[in-house]
Structure prediction request, 624 residues.
Amino acid sequence: MDIKLDIVQSHQRISPYIHRTPILTSLMVNDLSGAELFFKCENFQKMGAFKMRGATNAILQLSDEQKQKGVVTHSSGNFAQALALSAKSLGIKAYIVMPSNSPEVKKKAVKGYDGIITECEPTLEDRERTAAQIQQEKGATFVHPYNDFNVILGNASVGKELLEEYPDLDLIIVPVGGGGLISGVALSAISFSNKCKVIGAEPYNVDDAYRSLQSGKIEYNQTTDTIADGLKTLLGDITFNIIKNHVEKIIRVTEEEIVEAMQLIWERMKIIVEPSAAVTLAAVLKSKQEFKNKKVGIVLSGGNVDLKKLPF
Amino acid sequence: MDIKLDIVQSHQRISPYIHRTPILTSLMVNDLSGAELFFKCENFQKMGAFKMRGATNAILQLSDEQKQKGVVTHSSGNFAQALALSAKSLGIKAYIVMPSNSPEVKKKAVKGYDGIITECEPTLEDRERTAAQIQQEKGATFVHPYNDFNVILGNASVGKELLEEYPDLDLIIVPVGGGGLISGVALSAISFSNKCKVIGAEPYNVDDAYRSLQSGKIEYNQTTDTIADGLKTLLGDITFNIIKNHVEKIIRVTEEEIVEAMQLIWERMKIIVEPSAAVTLAAVLKSKQEFKNKKVGIVLSGGNVDLKKLPF
Prediction:
């Protein structure tokens, strides 16, 4: 299996349907951090998050018969929108199972992309049960938001684009939720660089990935009390396996550090990122010594926030 | 007098000190407007607004003796920051007269750039009186925020950059406050295009420029009750003269239309713009028929907002 070729082909496959997002820099934030930072702006991606890449790659790999019956997923937010929009632009149906407590702005967006929403209880069990039911009733193909190799290969294009424009990056920092983004970026790092390491950033309050790396098995969160609502999900077996082998370490940050980094990005860079994206800069600012004078790619994973509920 | 050469030389002069800002597009906003829009992101400019261009050009034209004694200006916000930052990076003093009711975030920013602030009453008379006093006491050179030909020539680079990247623009829309930006862009339009027209956008509540074009003389505002705090100033004789000759028309927008356009830019484009910048898109969305199928440059003049005081 040739991972590099898989990533290259996935990138080609999805390119007509995604934005090649800009990479921004800020002298001011460089000064503050002591590192040279390159912000990959997936907040500017279609529907506002990197998830568009993985969703599109997964759908494009379906057979014609599968396409006719549509796709189904469960997602608390950005992946739901991504699958709905990819499906819409390819003319197929998307059934979206969303926890009843998902942010209203995200439900509205899914509907805007013609996604067919079924609400469920906000537990992993009920999400999976409801999705399985739709799979059976409609014959729709289930696409997992992150624990799916085609999704991971689509997301890998984020790392590939970063390394194409800045081949000498020392590090790339990526938020860790279910691990679908960081495992894709890690596969790109080993494929397109001979020195670039990948580091994860995660809120203390949902540090399941950090603890999983410590214990060697997938750990669970006792609570999901974090402002970074995209990072509450657990690792899957596929993503955990890639992270274990190819991610250097995971840096944990507090809720205050996330909000501070988010405010810094908004105020100084004038771009809108969601809390889940800001964990990356929070991790750099917290561990300055580690990043000092390094060239660091920062993956700003998304920008879907409810402007009526800002933390500052 | 060769305006085109003046603009080219001013652009060269300031280039080492300013950002060449990106020009963003949004399929979603194009769909909404029925036009093809090219957003010139001066919100990403140093200190967050186009004013950096004019301020830098004015300072770079000073003699060594003048530089030694510093510069002084009165400004309610962005120009204050711009002059302070330009002066700082060139190692000279900037005395800034600010109305006592200026947003706290803007005063803080001026101090951050080592600007020496003197507060005054929020009237044009007191601003001018206070600045004149400092001029006399310190021997500092007064730089007017907009009614200064070097400032206008510096600002003209915004239009030049737009037309370099998109030579076939039909229109450029620019916010109108004191007129320093729109007159610069209008001079670039006649210099670098043989078809591009320039249109102004202005809040109804401070529509002095609109009324000035109607009456043929500089009109005043009875109130300055608008969310677009950068657009409260009156035209000067230099800017009015250029606007009269080279600006096609001015479109007026309501406060609601400004907030709606601002929210659209934040939510859909994921970038932070101030209300004064959003008047441009508000004007396009209000007069769709006029812009239909046209290629339109939109000058997003700045992004300095107080995140604690958002209108949505």
Observations:
- The mean pLDDT of chain B is 95.
